[in-house]
Amino acid sequence: MKPLPILLFLSFALLVPMAARCQTLTTDSIAALTDRALPAAVDELIDFLAIPNDGNYPEHVEANLAWCRERFAGLGFAVTRLETPGMPLLFAEKSVDAALPTVLFYLQIDGQPVDPAAWNQPDPYRAVWKRKEADGSYTTVPAPEGELDPELRIFARSASDSKGPAISFITALDIMQEEEIIPAYNVKVIMDFQEELGSDDLPAAVAAHRDLFAADFLVIMDGTRHVSNEPTLTFGARGIATATLRIFGPAYPLHSGQYGNFAPNPVFHAARLLAAMKDERGRVLIPGFYDGVELTEADKREMNKVPETREEIRQMVGIAEQEDLGDTYQEALQYPSLNVRGLRAGWTGKEVRTLIPEEVIVEIDMRLVPETPGERQVDLLRQFIAARGYHFVDSLPTAEERLTHPLLVSFTASLGSVPFRTDLDTPIDHWLTAAVRRSLGRDPVRMRTTGGSQPMGPFVNLLGLPAVSLRIPNPDNSIHAPDENLRLGNFREGIQECLGVLTQPLAPGR
Question: Can you give the three-state secondary structure of 154-177, one letter per residue?
């Protein structure tokens, strides 16, 4: 026999056992491999969290990008830096076999800005270990030694959103490299360093690099589990549009004694306008706001398989009654929402003053579903304000405008992430559900959509990729807020899930 065929035969003989092992990892073997890797994974997560990651700062982006580039290169990935008009992106690829399908994984590396004074630890980027007590409070504890208690929590910015999930994924790749287990398909990874700022440069990058991002499925390593803390797959996300209203009063703050009963206070104008936008049951009254949203009985049956009740969620968030949109929490998530996310006028607390303020600033966000595009919702909001008698100005009103129009407002709007939705009971659903079942020994909660927003529109709309979010962090993780945390048991299960997903075969052509 000639030398070349012998080499080919030997290569194939080595490949087959690894491929076979990829498919025969069991729940027990996945757990054993994870437990062996967990202590080092925890140490690496803590080190990674110590790199500040506010996407507003180029030095933060570059430090995290350099860490990710070195890490994926060490795992045998071809790594490419993608320049954009703003901050760069990082792309990594591992080709297994051209005949196999390809899965693209999305990793968010940046985190929300931090206010160190609001955190109950010296530095939000320096992880602290805490334990949750029966009354819901947290007690700081020493770093664990020996066996790791799944109920311990790591407190740091991005522990849950989303460096924890990123390290879960990387640790699974580490285990596979050490055990010589090849992935069940070709793997691509896109790392985003400005997700919390809207990922403004991502759509153009996807459009410019369509071939690079070409794949069969998109798995999003971002998002929080269902309130039950059971393993969760989420098949869609609402988009977001925002608006800022400046409602003007007098040309300058006025003494409330001298001018009360004479000069209108713009806070009351704002209050009447905002009250007109929603009824007492929470339904938005802007004409056309819900147009296009229709839930079939089949839709309702499927989404209401999620194990929860309205009473449980009310108790969790501390409210006496919920708003009246949809018969369940899951149904409520299928509609667009209108929220006042910020309101400012005058002063409060020790700085309070007896003044009629000169303006009120109202910050609004609207969550979007595929049937309610952001452009339309913003236009409906503007039309509603105009119908209430407001005169629009570009910035500060002129003296003439102040003397002519009793109701003055400036209106600026911005469109963020677009909504997306992937159908349940499709190949990506079957594949991921089987992977989670094999990795953890139980089925995931399958949610039709999440209330939050993710910048997946470019991949879904430009590339036509079915997209599903694999959710790892605990639901009580305080993401975006001070004292963000990750439960250790969730981190462990995240590694298991990633191992299951990376070794779950896909049928060619999906």
Answer: EECCCCCCCHHHHHHHHHHHHHHH
Give this prediction's pTM. 0.86
Q: Kindly state the helix (H) or strand (E) to which residue 418 belongs, with its residue range.
A: none
Tell me, what's the pLDDT at 22? 54
What sign results for the dihedral spanned by CA atoms 222, 226, 228, 230?
Answer: negative
d(CA 375, CA 315): 36
In the three-class reduction of DSSP (H, G, I as helix; E, B as strand; rest coil), residue 66 is classed as: helix
For residue 85, what are the contacts with CB-CB under 8 A and spacing of at least 6? 201, 204
What mean pLDDT value characterizes the chain? Answer: 93
Asked if 106 and 218 touch (Cβ cutoff 8 Å), the reply is yes
DSSP at 313: H
* Sign of the alpha-carbon dihedral angle for 61, 66, 69, 75: negative
Structure tokens at 132: 């949750």
What's the length of the chain? 510
Comparing CA positions, the residue from 346, 362, 356 lying closest to residue 264 is: 356
Token duo for residue 89: 């992106």
pLDDT digits (tens, 9 = 90+) for 465-490: 999 999 999 999 999 999 999 999 99
Q: What local confidence, expressed as pLDDT, does residue 12 receive?
A: 42
Computed on alpha carbons and rounded to an integer, the radius of gyration of the chain in Å comes to 26
Q: Please choose, from the candidates 194, 203, 34, 41, the residue with its C-alpha nearest in 3D space to the C-alpha of residue 111.
A: 194
Contact assessment for residue 267 and residue 395, using Cβ atoms and an 8 Å cutoff: no
pLDDT score of 19: 47
Residues in the chain with pLDDT values less than 70: 1-23, 508-510
Phi, psi of 105 (to 5 degrees): -105, 135
Backbone angles phi, psi at 115, to 5 degrees: -115, 95
271-to-42, 275, 347, 394 alpha-carbon distances in Å: 49, 6, 17, 22
Q: What are phi and psi of 367, to 5 degrees?
A: -85, 140
Per-residue pLDDT at 7: 41
Helices and strands in the chain: count of H runs, count of E runs: 17, 21
